[in-house]
Amino acid sequence: MKFPISVLDHLSCKQVALLTAVVASVSAASNDSGVGQPVGGLISVRVGHSQTPFPEWLTEFTGLKEWPGIDPPYIPMDFIDFDQIPDYRSYEQGVCGANPRESCSFDCDHCVAPDDVFTCSKLSQTFDDGPSLATERLLDNLDHKTTFFNLGINIVNYPDVYKKILDGGHLVGTHTWSHPFLPSLSNEKIIAQLQWSIWAMNATGHHLPKWFRPPYGAIDNRVRAISRMFGLQAVLWDHDTFDWQLLVEDQSLRTEESIYRDIQDWKQSGTGLILEHDGAFKTVQVGINVGRILGNDQMTVAECVGGSDYIKSFQQEG
Ligand SMILES: [Zn+2]
């Protein structure tokens, strides 16, 4: 396993135990601030709470009977053409220079492809890493439609929260199954991360996602080639709150006040996509406050570019 897992919280309520684990990258510093270890997705498993039922069609297709853990198995699919995937080398987080600039890495070189979405004509919030229990508080306090990039493993563990997101009219894109640093993985493992996240959304929300935000913004033309075969379009950002640093004990990293100051600055231009997180209550509270500063005149990612919400939506059975 690539990621160390540390149990953060251990709650129990009415015999429902909540285990929350943080998947944190072990990489060296990858940004200018010299801060290593960006916090990865908050992956939660609720023991005793019902998951999204594992659908029969998925058993027929995969031969499996339950949702996988954080390392999902690769299942071959007809439409994946390995000849179309460029032969760039895999690399670990923060270890840049393995590939030529033409590989167009966003995390290493801030390179974006022509079909990447990274800004918006109206300054708008986006939220990664849910759904979580904290997401519910956000939903109860947002007066505008927003965009969530959800982890498949969290979707099947929080199907009720996922449905509440949809009921609120928000847009959901995929943030992979379990939040790995995709450029470090084999083609097959990247495919597995996308296919299982899509199946989680299909089984829980009866739709297929169109929008895809790579964890850590880690995407190059190898990852893009694979994601495009699923019909996915990559979504990055041009304003980062670094709200995850609030979850780290070091007070010198980021304060709420510094985030709100940045928001006021960004509001002057009035355009852009803001990266935030709804995996924890602390960042959700910041998201609520940021929403109050910005107001409700925001767009979803699909609205930003005049695109559709989902590749396909299915009638719910039964
Ligand atoms: Zn994330």
Topology record:
Elements: E1 5-13, E2 16-24, E3 39-47, H1 56-62, H2 106-109, E4 124-128, H3 133-141, E5 147-150, H4 152-157, H5 159-167, E6 171-174, H6 187-205, E7 207-209, E8 211-212, H7 221-229, E9 233-234, E10 239-240, H8 256-269, E11 273-277, H9 281-294, H10 301-305, E12 310-313
Helix pairs in contact: 3-9, 6-7, 8-9
The structure holds zinc ion.
The site of zinc ion has 6 residues, from loops.
Question: Would you kindly provide a brief summary of this structure?
Answer:
The protein is α/β, with parallel strands linked by helices and 318 residues long. The protein is built from 10 helices and 12 strands. Zinc ion binds next to loops.
Can you walk me through this structure?
- The protein has helices spanning 56-62, 106-109, 133-141, 152-157, 159-167, 187-205, 221-229, 256-269, 281-294, 301-305, and strands at residues 5-13, 16-24, 39-47, 124-128, 147-150, 171-174, 207-209, 211-212, 233-234, 239-240, 273-277, 310-313.
- By secondary structure, it is an alpha/beta fold.
- The protein has one domain (53-313): Glycoside hydrolase/deacetylase (TIM Barrel, Alpha-Beta Barrel).
- Strand 10 (239-240), helix 8 and strand 11 form a beta-alpha-beta unit.
- The longest helix is centred in the middle third of the chain and has 19 residues, at 187-205.
- The protein binds zinc ion (ZN).
- Zinc ion binds next to loops.
